């Protein structure tokens, strides 16, 4: 029997060097890249989402990078279907494909999928939206922490849409939202090899802080200002834009917005690592160990064959 095709999945915190490693691997393996970065889908978020440069995109063909408008929100459930359809197409021509991103939720969508959650409760959704509009995100966070601490430890607690969805399911079913998430992994027609990037915390934090400064120098403020009229759109409720929108509202000066972007990005990186550390399938490397990663991939392929 022929071996299954192989999906090499590169994960890790923001600013850890995932894009560079993925391109290096894809070139060595003569294949293409699928991104599961939940912000890089949207072409208008070029600077704030750290979308690969034109030069990087020219080196290797990328999929799901800047391929849609930010108003066309792509949920994790929809990405599960779209991403696997694209993978099936690529595996017709390639024995191996590289996937890269920092979203644990979208990595799960691609590799394991989700249990179907059909319960909808319009009254509950309207209630929590009213709470958010009236009192902000803190009551949503407090309720989710109390009612489903497991999911609260995984989700972006600044994303009110995801909090509302979880609370709606809890209200509808009486069960924690996490109870419905991947109790039985779906069978995929490919093997997976997980690669994680990590580094010393002080170095990672320095890289994050410098990346934010580089984004500001590249025009992040102007990019966010152009998106400001759409600030309530789900795709824009994210670190980098949220702080600048508050600055535009007069809540604090630009210098404070930059400091908050740096701080919140560091917090986001910590949550990413917390998520990925729970996956015991991940082989961890430093950002400069591309040759060691390639050795592991080739060893995995030879054992599979």
Describe the structure.
- By secondary structure, the chain is α/β, with parallel strands linked by helices.
- The protein has two domains: about 5-115 and about 185-305, P-loop containing nucleotide triphosphate hydrolases (Rossmann fold), CATH 3.40.50; about 120-180, Histone, subunit A, CATH 1.10.20.140.
- About 50% of the residues lie in helices and about 10% in strands.
- It is built from 13 helices and six strands.
- The chain has helices spanning about 20-30, 55-60, 75-90, 105-110, 120-135, 140-145, 150, 160-175, 200-220, 220-225, 240-250, 255-275, 290-305; strands spanning about 5-10, 35, 60-65, 95-100, 190-195, 280-285.
- It has a six-stranded parallel β-sheet, with helices on both faces.
- The protein is globular, with a radius of gyration of 20 Å.
